[in-house]
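Q: I'm writing up a methods section and want to include an example of the input and output format. Could you take the sequence below and give the corresponding predicted structure tokens, formatted cleanly so I can copy it straight into the document?
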Amino acid sequence: MAEGSDRIFVGGLPYYFTEVQIRELLESFGPLRGFDLVKDRDTGNSKGYGLCVYKDQEATDVACAALNGLKMGDKTLTVRRATIRLPDEIPTKVLCLTEVPYVFSFLKRKNVNDV
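A: Here is the clean output for your methods example:
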């Protein structure tokens, strides 16, 4: 897996692009330290996105600026720094309240401490 703080997410890749073609495109901005094309487990086909890390950190920003929004066939590339999610982060939970008591219902009660 392409690891590093300067890891880049490359999305919107045409499915017919080979791993070699994508690597050549990315390496036009500098040598890569790592590249991973995400593939379907069952078919082995590209899922249309991958991650890479450049050896030279300056190439990261140049590649993002040059490739992001680039049209490739019927697809548009999304190229940006990948966000890192730490293992101890807990996803935000959404609470849905179906019956929210109104303040007026509490005021009608004689003893508010019963609530």
